[in-house]
Amino acid sequence: MNILMAASECVPFVKVGGLADVVGALPKYLAKIGHDVRIILPKYRKIDGKKYDLRALPYRLQVKVGSDIERFRIKYCVTEDNVTVYFIENMRFFDRPDVYGADGSDYGDNRERYIFFCRAVLESLKALMFRPDIIHCHDWQTGLIPAYLKTNLRNDGFFWNTSSVYTIHNIAYQGGFDADTVVEAGFSWEDFTVDKLEFYNTLNFMKCAIALSDAVSTVSPTYALEIKEFNGRGMEIVLNSRKEDIYGILNGIDYDYWNPKTDPFISKNYSPSDLAGKKICKAELQKLCGFEAREDAYLFGCVSRLDNQKGFDIIIDALYSLSRQNMQFVILGSGDPYIKRLLQEAAYKLKGKAAVFFDYNEPLAHKIYAGSDAYMMPSRFEPCGLSQMIALKYGSIPIVNRAGGLSDTVEYYNHYSKKGNGFVFNITYGENFVQTILKSEKIFRDKANWNILMQNSFACDFSWNKSVESYVKMYSDVIEKKRRELLFAR
Ligand code: ADP
Ligand code: GLC
Fold first, then answer.
1. What pLDDT, in 10s, does the model give residues 370-404?
2. For ligand 2, what atom is nearest to the CA of residue 383?
3. Cystine design at 8: which of 79, 141, 257, 291 (Cβ 3.0–4.6 Å)?
4. Cα-based distances in Å from 376 to 158, 329, 372, 380, 464
């Protein structure tokens, strides 16, 4: 199959959250099984052209955004896994310090930025003469691509064999804008109907994609159920109108990259059969945080976007409630300035017990996964969550709220049956994070049980090899549907 991944983030080039990990890894695993997969991204300033040896194609293209003509170039590189990555370069929209916004607020012209990107992606395909069987779009920033294919471009022969699939990584970010976006994006008012572009008299990028792509997926089976039933942020009816075409596919982890045996960022490598290195990683992390380097201190890590989604109110509460215990807490995060202020205050009051780092810091993230005993993730909702899967690989035991992908990946450790890989509580049933931490501490202090729990955690397999098969199945279903449609159209 020929597949184009269109997204707004991708490792190693640019990352804000887990979306980047997925867009970086999925193509690599699809390419491994023989598909021609290419990726297309905005060329943000953050993407270092020299480091990745980006080359420019020898032509300039243009698309319309509102009444403006926006010119752009395509740059490209080929990764070591043989995946071609295209970058849309336009100074006005992407040559700025950040990806989505600054100081906790979105850029005021994100609507125009991603209208531009969606149009530029489709225009680029023609220039590149690349006719994908599937355009796989991710999150709201690419949501208009399926919409253009089913409206303005429906009679364009170039795209006759092209289907689109759309993956929802987080339904909380929908890209909802005023109805005049119809004009700005160059659609016709005729298509501003409830089955196509209209959403309560607005134009919502995500709604357009759910309604008009050929299949929709989201990043865990439980989240797929949740968003249809009660957590769809207003999108429940639209989702249910497509319920036959919705797939819940659990994300994977790229174990070539996330592996304590080979990780170049951690103080000492280790493996399930030799955990000496993990002790060194813990001691180094304690030093870095200004904590006492005690092996018996129960050390918790957290690496996260600072966002209400992630349950920071619950974490901050726990920091204060547990301050007298033999426990230590380290948090690395960037995002919401209000959460940052509360964490700063907690770290100041709980010096020696809690340390916070406000940064996007890849090496430190690895050190935290490797050095911590347990990993805090009391997310109020979580489409999939990669952090808990990474933590499991590093033997940092996740303590999570039962939500979305966390329910699909973490199972309460039962010290009778010796089954389970972490600790789970349920906010909806009034269960409590602090109590769950205290229960987990009993296991932590019982070394025989803790060792079994750690081995269970190392044994989890969330590799991409499994999830990739589900994606291929979804692509094949869509291609088959298209083939039948074309057959009937004759
Ligand atoms: P989300 O996509 O909602 O942010 P995930 O758990 O799916 O949550 O993915 C988060 C990813 O981003 C993980 O790879 C995590 O290690 C990484 N990450 C989050 N915040 C930071 C940070 N401040 N520094 C380094 N890595 C981070
Ligand atoms: C989103 C979700 C997260 C998911 C990630 C990758 O950012 O918040 O749960 O793991 O996308 O799909």
1. 999 999 999 999 999 999 999 999 999 999 999 99
2. 9
3. 141
4. 49, 9, 10, 12, 24
